[in-house]
């Protein structure tokens, strides 16, 4: 069973975003049980808690007919997977799963005819090995956030499974200890990159796109002791760098000059 004490207060605001569907408002509760629907102007969010299996989800999807939902939020549930046929028919753009047990994320029959733009997985226990190829058919994916799952190493081969349109790649508490050269180099549209509260020791300029569109980099809570003078070179849009709670004791004169003239925020406080 996945841990239940993890907090996810910031998940829900992500879900309240624009959408359009065949019907306005939410379906009546009798069609939604055991899920609920939250409606905001031009936005439907399907909230499903204590789901026992994927069949429960399919029943809700079928009973709600032509209603479409912008966001699916599964919480404290046990499911086999996200039904791919319903993923397309309901036109989900956001998939959020928290504090749940999941066998695997998607069926093998998931193709590129989907609208998924955001994946947020917080404290999800996968019964089968985590498969990065799950994300290959998500050609519209721009936001990926994974928390409290083990990702010991990242390389370019793993990241090839993501759309080149990916703008946000965020990991937190994933026990990541190694980033290989070129790992993010092909993600030319990355705006924000986070590998937080892990075991990273080294950062190199060759890990990132050149030029890079990065605006924010967050490596808070790792084991970084130093970084090369050219780390932030060819990153004209970079504004925020967070390196708190690392082991950095020294910054070279040339790097400090770059930081003082270019960055809006550099945080090194805390060890």
Automatic annotation (TrEMBL):
<protein>
    <submittedName>
        <fullName>Uncharacterized protein</fullName>
    </submittedName>
</protein>
<dbReference type="GO" id="GO:0031012">
    <property type="term" value="C:extracellular matrix"/>
</dbReference>
<dbReference type="GO" id="GO:0005615">
    <property type="term" value="C:extracellular space"/>
</dbReference>
<dbReference type="InterPro" id="IPR001611">
    <property type="entry name" value="Leu-rich_rpt"/>
</dbReference>
<feature type="signal peptide">
    <location>
        <begin position="1"/>
        <end position="21"/>
    </location>
</feature>
<keyword id="KW-0732">Signal</keyword>
<dbReference type="InterPro" id="IPR050328">
    <property type="entry name" value="Dev_Immune_Receptor"/>
</dbReference>
<dbReference type="Pfam" id="PF13855">
    <property type="entry name" value="LRR_8"/>
</dbReference>
<dbReference type="InterPro" id="IPR032675">
    <property type="entry name" value="LRR_dom_sf"/>
</dbReference>
């Amino acid at each position: 069973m996945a841990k239940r004490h993890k907090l996810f207060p910031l998940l829900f605001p992500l879900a309240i975003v624009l959408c359009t569907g065949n019907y306005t408002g939410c379906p009546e509760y009798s069609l939604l049980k055991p899920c609920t629907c939250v409606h905001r102007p031009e936005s439907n969010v399907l909230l499903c808690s204590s789901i026992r299996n994927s069949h429960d989800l399919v029943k809700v999807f079928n009973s709600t007919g032509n209603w479409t939902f912008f966001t699916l939020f599964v919480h404290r549930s046990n499911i086999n997977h996200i039904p791919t046929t319903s993923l397309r028919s309901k036109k989900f753009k956001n998939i959020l799963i928290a504090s749940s047990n999941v066998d695997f994320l998607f069926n093998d029959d998931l193709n590129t005819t989907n609208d998924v733009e955001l994946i947020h997985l917080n404290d999800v226990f996968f019964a089968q090995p985590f498969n990065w190829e799950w994300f290959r058919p998500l050609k519209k994916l721009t936001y990926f956030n994974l928390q409290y799952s083990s990702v010991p190493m990242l390389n370019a081969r793993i990241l090839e499974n993501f759309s080149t349109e990916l703008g946000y790649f965020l990991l937190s508490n994933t026990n990541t200890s190694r980033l290989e050269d070129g790992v993010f180099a092909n993600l030319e549209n990355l705006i924000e990159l986070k590998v937080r509260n892990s075991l990273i020791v080294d950062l190199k300029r060759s890990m990132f796109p050149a030029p890079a569109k990065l605006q924010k980099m967050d490596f808070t809570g790792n084991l970084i002791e130093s970084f090369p003078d050219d780390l932030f070179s060819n990153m004209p849009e970079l504004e925020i760098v967070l390196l708190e709670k690392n082991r950095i004791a020294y910054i070279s004169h040339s790097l400090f000059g770059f930081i003082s003239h270019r960055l809006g925020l550099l945080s090194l406080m805390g060890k």
